[in-house]
Amino acid sequence: MDQKQWLETAVAEARAGLAEGGIPIGAALYGADGALLGRGHNRRVQDGDPSMHAETAAFRDAGRQRSYRGTTMVTTLSPCWYCSGLVRQFGISRVVIGEATTFRGGQDWLAEHGVEVVVLDDPECTGLMRDFIAERPDLWSEDIGD
Questions:
Q1: Is 8 among the residues known to form the active site?
Q2: Are 7 and 31 in contact (CB under 8 A)?
Q3: Residues 49, 34: Cα–Cα separation, whole Å
Q4: What is the pLDDT of residues 6-22, one digit of tens each?
Q5: CA distances (Å), origin 95, targets 12, 21, 92
Q6: Half-sphere exposure of 29 (CA within 13 A, CB side)
Q7: Is 119 strand, coil or helix?
């Protein structure tokens, strides 16, 4: 599978989150061999848990791994500082980002610290977030800590 195919998994998760009344951000964690380890979406609203971001959900779904070296976190939106910290803490090697237009997050910091960062500039991801931000600016502001 290539990065665009991996992104499809994250987009499906983002759409699931939106359908549940949550924030449309999805993520997936892939192993060095390309196997899907875990997937998830932002569940802050659904679970009432401010720490349940998409990357966190995918990471938890993957379960305990002996090492995260060589793994790739694929996310529909540039990871926030919290999720960027998770990537660094556990040594995830690469982050593939669907879009960084609506939110830039910690991607530059990740790159500065040796994480490979790939931004796909996917129009579907951008449209999903722009529509959501326009419809629910209050919820978006809450999610990013404004």
A1: no
A2: no
A3: 30
A4: 999 999 999 999 999 99
A5: 18, 26, 8
A6: 27
A7: strand
d(CA 49, CA 36): 25
Alpha helices in 20-122 (DSSP H): 44-47, 54-62, 81-90, 107-112
Q: How far apart are CA 141 and CA 133, in angstroms?
A: 9
pLDDT digits (tens, 9 = 90+) for 50-63: 999 999 999 999 99
Q: Please answer whether residues 6 and 96 qualify as being in contact, where contact means their C-beta atoms are separated by less than 8 angstroms.
A: yes
Burial-class residue 3 by CB neighbours within 10 Å (0-12, 13-18, 19+): middle
Q: How far is CA 117 from the centre of its chain?
A: 12
Q: What pLDDT digit, counting tens, does each position of 27-56 carry? A: 999 999 999 999 999 999 999 999 999 999
Instruction: Find the catalytic residue in 13, 20, 55, 135.
Output: 55
Tokens of 39: 């997937």
CB under 8 Å to 83, separation ≥6 — which residues? Answer: 53, 54, 55, 56, 75, 105, 106
Pairing state of beta strands 116-119 and 94-99?
parallel
The Cα–Cα gap between 106 and 27 comes to 16
Is this model's pTM higher than 0.85 or not?
Answer: yes
